[in-house]
Design a protein that fits this description.
By secondary structure, the chain is an alpha/beta fold. It has helices at 2-18, 21-38, 40-54, 60-84, 89-95, 153-164, 177-186, 218-225, 262-279; strands spanning 96-99, 116-120, 142-147, 169-172, 189-194, 204-208, 211-215, 229-231, 234-239, 242-246, 254-255, 258-259. A 5-stranded parallel β-sheet has the order 4-3-5-2-8, sandwiched between helices. The chain has a 3-stranded mixed β-sheet with strand order 1-10-9. It has a two-stranded antiparallel ribbon with strand order 6-7. The protein is globular and about 55 Å long.
Length: 304
């Protein structure tokens, strides 16, 4: 059965990569529309999350429209991510603008330069971060990211090949920790960490869009440990099959000559993502249960 799913997925990838990008984007939006009507559980999750965050400022009708558009955007982004993985550098530059990329260029020609950490989230076609090298001067860096492998080996292999075709280095979160540390120690990496999912294990409880949730300390810890500059770049959809990545200003890792705590840095990262969500709510991944907190312990009664 896994092999059948793999062959079907392989055929789907081939078809999408053979089509023009705008056609792929429209097909993705149609697919998102279909999933909106069929997937009741995730539709309710997205509507609930949007109501939680914007219920005091938007009507039920506005929130429903945002939910609907969010599904279309997710479909568009997933399908376009498959297509853009096979596009050449010149074609990518026609559909993607990167604002602030010059901040990533090393200040001097040391070989290799210090690593830099890009803490981002599920905004727009976030797979485009793998194409950042095309917007930098020289060949000082390689892009790297972490991922969680799929249970199906063949599908995991297909996903791996799609992400690594541009030369991006991939590190499996559960098994490649030592390899990632070694690569970071060697320098020359732009490490992309998707850090907007709930992380109870060693996570920090923060307020996100007015409600408590757990956030990963990983970007802050990695930036501090390896002396990296830390950015929170966001991928925005600006038109059908068109995106812009905005680097923003770096998040300071030191203040008054002292290292800032990972907790403070993590709160700054989440604050930057919060602004991005408010700027274009439909651009984010609302179908994920972001607001998980620790269960309230139940007191154990003993006989007195």
């Amino acid at each position: 059965m896994d092999r059948i799913f793999y062959l079907l997925a392989r055929m789907g990838v081939g078809l999408l990569q053979a089509m023009p990008l705008r056609v792929v984007a429209r097909l993705g939006r149609c697919g998102g529309e279909l999933v909106y009507w069929l997937d009741r559980r995730h539709r309710r999750m997205a509507f609930h999350n949007l109501t939680r965050c914007f219920g005091a400022e938007k009507s039920a009708g506005e929130i429903l429209a945002l939910t609907h558009e969010n599904f279309r955007r997710i479909g568009e982004n997933y399908c376009c991510a498959i297509k853009t993985a096979a596009m050449g550098e010149a074609a990518i530059k026609r559909v993607l603008e990167v604002r602030g990329a010059e901040q990533l260029d090393p200040p001097y020609a040391n070989d290799p330069p210090k690593c830099q950490v890009l803490a981002t989230g599920h905004f727009g076609n976030f797979e485009l971060f793998g194409r950042m090298i095309a917007y930098l001067k020289g060949d000082h860096y390689r892009v790297a990211c972490t991922y969680r492998g799929l249970r199906q080996p063949l599908l995991d292999q297909l996903l791996h090949s799609l992400r690594s075709v541009t030369g991006m280095l991939l590190f499996e979160r559960r098994t490649d920790g030592d390899n990632l540390k070694k690569a970071m120690s060697n320098g020359g990496l732009l490490l992309v960490l998707v850090a907007d999912q709930s992380s109870r294990e060693a996570g920090l409880e923060v307020s996100f869009l007015g409600h408590p949730c757990f956030a990963s300390r990983a970007p802050a810890v990695m930036a501090a440990r390896y002396g990296c500059t830390l950015f929170v770049p966001i991928c925005y959809r600006v038109a059908l099959g068109r995106w812009v990545i905005e680097m923003g200003e770096p998040i300071p890792t030191h203040a008054d000559g002292r290292r800032r705590s990972a907790d403070v840095i993590t709160r700054d990262i989440n604050a930057a993502m919060e602004l991005a969500v408010r700027r274009d709510p439909a651009n984010w991944f609302w179908v994920h249960n972001r607001w998980k907190t620790l269960p309230i312990p139940v007191p154990v009664l003993t006989a007195g």
